[in-house]
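Here is one chain, start to finish.
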Amino acid sequence: MSDLAESDVRHSEPDEHPKACALQLSPRWMRYFIVFGIPALALLSVAMSAIKVEGGNFIVNELADRFILNNEFSIPTLISIVLMFVASQLCALNYLYYRRLMRAPINTYWVLSSLILLAMAYDESAQIHESLRWSLFDNILNGQSWIFVGVPIVVVLGLLSIPFLLSPPRRLKVELLKGATIFVFGALVIEGVGGLYKVGFGMDFVYVLISVAEEATELTGISYVNLALLNHAAQKGLSVTFCDPAGRE
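Its structure:
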């Protein structure tokens, strides 16, 4: 396992330097985040949005923006980016693990999943998808016509993933599919509803609530993907730990 240890993919053994490790990912904490953290962030986002609607000075509005789910420069958005990155690393961990057991083409899907999640993390920070607009439908969703580009991409990726989803371990693939479905429902369906509402009624407080529901659903989906991957890693005796390099000296 020496080559895996160098990649920070290892069996869960007692750490000889426990103080060196800054953070070890745990399924338990991910469950807590899904059950308590995301609802709290959603309620806080609604409260901060209400403060902005009521109006306030520049400092108050800036502070409120840091906690609004659909603000790309907010703390919840940063959490979403981190979760996508972590899920990407967990997929890479699975690739290393299964490659040692058996070299098979199906393992390549773990690499592709890792790359897709990395691309999603970058897009979440750079908001590239907002520029993928289909002018034919731009009037329908008022600036959110990228959904008509996103749907065929999701369909193609879903079809290409069928062999991967049907391969063992089956339970893990079912859980990953659930998380991906929740995420896509938020990203495409709820955001589409928000776009239609914005066309008909504008960006009032109801639109804000729809946007919060969309972002909370996406956050739940990517969190569920992380939970499935963390549970699987724990069952295999694997762990992912973010460490302070200086602490190892």
